[in-house]
Specification:
Layout (H helix, E strand, L loop, with lengths): L3 E4 L2 E4 L3 H14 L3 E6 L1 H9 L1 H8 L3 E4 L2 H9 L10 H15 L2 E6 L2 H14 L4 E6 L6 H11 L3 E5 L4 H9 L7 E4 L3 H6 L7 H5 L3 H8 L4 H4 L1 H17 L2
Parallel strand pairs: 3-4, 3-8, 5-6, 5-7, 7-8
Antiparallel strand pairs: 1-2
Length: 244
C-alpha cells in the first residue's frame, strides 16, 4: 500500500497512523523489508542541497510527517496530510504493536547506560515485549552489528545514531539483516530512558515540540531557522503551481 505526497521533491507518506501500522504488520508477516524515516522541514531543506540524502529518503518505504511544518506545507500544496507522527511517537506505536503481536525488537545506539535504562523503562510499560537484544552506539564494526542482529532474528530494529548517520547505516546494511522493519529514532532512547524530558502534552497537542526544545535549548535557534526558509520555498512552489 502506497500513498505519497511530494513536498519540495521529498516524498511524505500520506497514511494515518492506524493504516500505516496495518501496512507495517503486513510487511512483518511477509518479511518485506521497509525503512521508516522521519520527514521534517530541516531534513527537507538538507535534501535540497544533498541529492544522495534526497534519494535515500525517497527510496524509503515510509516517510512519516514529523513536525507541524510538514502538515502546513501539505495543506498549502493541496495535499491531504493533516496529522503529525513524530519519530518518538512512531517508535512508541511500533513498541505497542510488537507488544500486542509478539514481534521481537532490537535496539542499536546511544550510550550503554542510556540504552539499558531505556529498555528497562520500555519493558515496564510493555510487559509482553520481546527484546531480542541491543548494542550500544560505541560499537562501530558493522559486521559485528549485522551478525548480532541476524543471530537473534528480530522483526523490528531501532537505530539511534542521529540523522543522517542512522539512515546511512540502515541503507548500507538493511539487505543483509534478517529484520523486516528498520527505524532511525534519533534521540528517542534518551526520551524513553528519562534522560531527556519529552515536551509537555500541551506542546505536543498543538505541534509545538520545536518551541519547547528551543526554550529548553536556545542553542537550537540556528537549526530552527530552517522552518521559515522552508515555508517560503513552499509558498513559492504553491504560487508556481497556481500560475500553471
Amino acid at each position: 500500500m502506497t500513498s505519497k505526497e511530494s513536498i519540495l521533491g521529498v516524498k511524505v507518506t500520506a497514511l494515518p497512523i492506524d493504516t500505516l501500522l496495518e501496512d507495517i504488520e503486513r510487511r512483518i508477516h511477509s518479511r518485506d523489508k521497509g525503512r521508516i524515516v522521519a520527514i521534517n522541514p530541516e531534513k527537507i531543506m538538507m535534501a535540497q542541497k544533498d541529492g544522495n540524502l534526497a534519494s535515500l529518503l525517497n527510496q524509503s518505504a515510509y516517510q512519516i510527517p514529523d513536525g507541524v511544518g510538514v502538515s502546513i506545507a501539505s495543506k498549502l500544496l493541496k495535499g491531504s496530510i493533516r496529522w503529525r507522527i513524530t519519530g518518538v511517537g512512531m517508535m512508541e506505536n511500533l513498541l505497542q504493536l510488537a507488544n500486542e503481536k509478539n514481534h521481537k525488537v532490537f535496539f542499536y545506539g546511544a550510550k550503554e547506560e542510556t540504552v539499558v535504562k531505556a529498555i528497562d523503562k520500555i519493558q515496564q510499560s510493555y510487559p509482553n515485549l520481546q527484546v531480542a537484544g541491543y548494542i550500544n552506539g560505541y560499537e562501530k564494526d558493522e559486521e559485528v552489528i549485522v551478525d548480532r542482529i541476524n543471530e537473534v532474528k528480530p522483526d523490528i530494529v531501532f537505530v539511534a545514531l542521529g540523522s543522517p548517520r542512522q539512515e546511512l547505516f540502515i541503507d548500507r546494511n538493511m539487505s543483509r539483516m534478517s529484520a523486516a522493519i528498520f527505524q532511525g529514532v534519533g534521540g528517542s532512547f534518551d526520551v524513553f530512558s528519562g534522560n531527556v524530558k519529552r515536551a509537555p502534552y500541551i506542546f505536543r497537542k498543538f505541534g509545538l515540540e520545536w518551541l519547547y526544545r528551543l526554550i529548553s535549548q536556545p542553542s537550537r535557534l540556528k537549526r530552527q531557522l530552517a522552518l521559515p526558509k522552508f515555508l517560503l520555498l513552499v509558498l513559492k512552489e504553491k504560487f508556481r503551481k497556481g500560475n500553471k
